[in-house]
Amino acid sequence: MTSAPLAARLREVAGPLFFPVTAFGPDGAVDVDVFRAHVRAGIDAGAAAVFACCGTGEFHALAPGEFRLAVAAAVEETAGRIPVVAGAGYGTALAVEFARAAEEAGADGLLAMPPYLVVADQEGLLNHYAALAAATGLETIVYQRDNAVFTPETVVALARTPGIIGLKDGLGDLDLMQRIVSAVRTHRPDDDFLYFNGLPTAELTGLAYRGIGVTLYSSAVFAFAPDVALAFHRALESGDDALVDALLDHFYRPLVELRAKGRGYAVSLVKAGVRLQGLDVGEVRTPLTEPLAAHVKDLIEIIASGRSLLEERAAEGHGVEAHGAPGGRA
Fold first, then answer.
1. Residue 148: strand pairing partners
2. Which of 47, 53, 125, 227 makes an SS bond possible with 323, Cβ 3.0 to 4.6 Å?
3. Residue 76 to residues 43, 84, 105, Cα–Cα distance (Å)
4. Entry pTM
5. Is 217 a catalytic residue?
């Protein structure tokens, strides 16, 4: 954990937010050494923050002891250089246990996942996240998706809740997000509440979210193709529309279309991508399944297409460099 507040550090990020996969060995156990290598390489590649044991990191499949082990490893690898945010979820009691484990492991903040299974009303959701935020001294980002969808009024209340610093949107309803941003701005005009685009391949909707003022986003692509993810991030920031459009057309849109071909591919394709770059992070845990061989072949072609674009840009003198994936071959 670092002394600087998480919210302040995230407002000043200069790169993608890194969501590492959790490595499993041949025996199915968490492989801490490989996980460390994956995290370390992501930091070296330019990650702005590490979100450990979240959706891409298979939070749902981790036992509490495994969770704490992985979060602690991420904290040790970052050594305070960038913040570490850990997932926390299930019902309130278990979410609090995970939150306290993350705090003990040295994390800087929490990404609060939706409650397990149940569909609650707005009051119940607000009570759940307020209890989670009050359970530790960690700053908390609430994740909107699935069975945790908020009205603008509820988000205003969340923004007023001590310890809650932001909302990550994995729903993709831009009309709702615009009303949320407007409501918080109206009722909390001096508030610096943070918003994140948290869709599975957030870059595809980056332009749309930026239109309503949401510039922070999670990047699953950074886990296996940091060169592409960084180039896209820089192009968005600098207004390089030609590169943004080229990567959307030839990398991100094909990737999203491939992701839609299998359940759980938002995680298993990412893990396959990391393995393709030379780091054996193992397979996904049940109930997720591995991508079909034909789809892995498609992923290889998509990655090659993205890197080919970067090589063409570099050859034209635009200064774009190509690198390997975190923990993989250069």
1. 145
2. 227
3. 12, 10, 9
4. 0.93
5. no
| 1-30 per-residue burial string, b: 16 or more CB within 10 A, e: under 16 | bbeeebbebbeebebbbbbbbbbbeeeeeb
Q: Which helix or strand (DSSP H or E) is residue 140 part of?
A: strand 139-144
pLDDT attached to residue 175: 98
Average pLDDT for 96-109: 98
Cα dihedral sign, 310-52-82-36 = negative
What is the distance between the alpha carbons of residues 32 and 69, in angstroms, rounded to a whole number?
8
> How do strand 17-18 and strand 216-219 relate by DSSP bridges?
parallel
Which of 237, 281, 289, 238 is closest to 261 using CA atoms?
289
* Spatial CB neighbours of 203, under 8 Å, sequence gap ≥ 6: 217, 219, 221, 229, 232, 247, 248, 252
In whole angstroms, give the CA distance from residue 222 to residue 253.
16
Which residue do the tokens 């080229």 mark? Answer: 246
In sequence order, the 6+-apart residues with CB closer than 8 A to the CB of 37 are 279, 327
Per-residue confidence (pLDDT) for residue 12, from 0 to 100: 86
Instruction: Give the tokens for residue 173.
Output: 């309803």
Closest by CA to 55, choosing from 197, 220, 282, is 220
Residue appearing with tokens 């840009």: 313
Closest to 22 in 3D by CA, of 288, 294, 251, 201: 288
| Residue 138 confidence (pLDDT) above 70 | yes
Which residue, among 192, 232, 168, has the nearest Cα to 9 in the 3D structure? Answer: 192
Which is catalytic among the residues 129, 168, 265, 271? 168
Amino acid at 291: P
Please identify which of the residues 129, 143, 195, 252 carries the catalytic annotation.
143
